[in-house]
Amino acid sequence: MEEIKQIPNGPVQGNTYVIGEGESCYIIDPGYDYQRIIQYVKSKYKFVKAILLTHGHFDHCGAVDEVASFFNCKTYMNLEDMVFIDSPTKKSQSPILGMTIKLETPILSLDDFNDDNIIVLNTPGHSKGSVCFWFKKEKALFSGDTLFSVDIGRVDLPGGSMKEMTESLKLLKTLPDDLKVYPGHEETTTLGKEKRTNMYLSRI
Ligand SMILES: [Zn+2]
Q: Is 143 within 8 Å of 183 (Cβ atoms)?
C-alpha cells in the first residue's frame, strides 16, 4: 500500500513530499526542516530510494545535505538548475547572486534516473530546469513551482519564461483529469479541477 505524506516546512512553507511503498520511499524537495523530515521518514521506512528535486531553488533543496547523508541516498535534479547551487563538483561559482545555495551532496542528472512508475516531465518556465514528477500507480503529479492550486509559479526569477511556462502548462493539460496535484507550495488539487478553474490553464 503506497502512501503520500505532505510536510510543509520552512519560512516560505515549501512542501516536502514522502512517497512510500513497503519499506522504502522517495523524498521530493526536502526544503528546510531536515529534522522533521528525517524523523518522519525513519519512523516509517527502512530506506530511501532517492531524493528527487522539482527544481533548484533553495526552498526546495535546502535540506538535501542532511537528508541525503542520513539516509545515504542519491539526489536527482534537472542539471539546468545547477545555476542555483554551489557545489564542490562545480568548477566555477554559480552566477546568480543572492539566489544560490551551497550543497555538498553530488547532484545527479534526472537523465540517469530510472523508475518505470515515474515519468519525469520537463516543464521549464518557473526555472529552466523545472520538472514535474508523474507517479503513475499513485495517479499523482508533483508539480513543484510550475502549477499550484488556481495559480502558477513565478516566471520573473532568473531563468523564468512565460513563453516556456505556457508550453509546459499545455503539456500538463494533456494529462488525465483524475491526477491528484501535489504542488511545491500550499494545498493539493486535481488536474481536472485546475483545467476548469485555473485561468492560466483554461485560457491556453
Ligand atoms: Zn521555485
A: yes
Ligand 1: centre distance to CA 73 (Å): 23
pTM beyond cutoff 0.90: yes
Each residue's pLDDT tens digit, 97-133: 677 899 999 999 999 999 999 999 999 999 999 999 9
Element (H, E) at 48: strand 47-52
Average pLDDT over residues 162-184: 98
Question: How high does pLDDT run on average in the chain?
Answer: 94
Q: How far is the CA of 113 from the centre of ligand 1 (A)?
A: 21
Whether the per-residue pLDDT at 142 is higher than 80: the answer is yes
CATH number at residue 153: 3.60.15.10
CB atoms within 5 A of ion ligand 1 belong to: 57, 145
Ligand 1 midpoint to CA 175 (Å) = 22
- Segments forming the whole domain that contains residue 134: 2-202
Q: Compute, in angstroms, the gap from residue 188 CA to the centroid of ligand 1.
A: 17
Pairing of strands 189-190, 180-183: antiparallel
How many domains is the chain built from?
A: 1
Compute, in angstroms, the gap from residue 189 CA to the centroid of ligand 1: 19
Q: Quick one: angle between helices 64-71 and 34-44, nearest 10?
A: 30
Give the up-direction half-sphere exposure of residue 106: CA atoms within 13 A in the CB hemisphere. 6
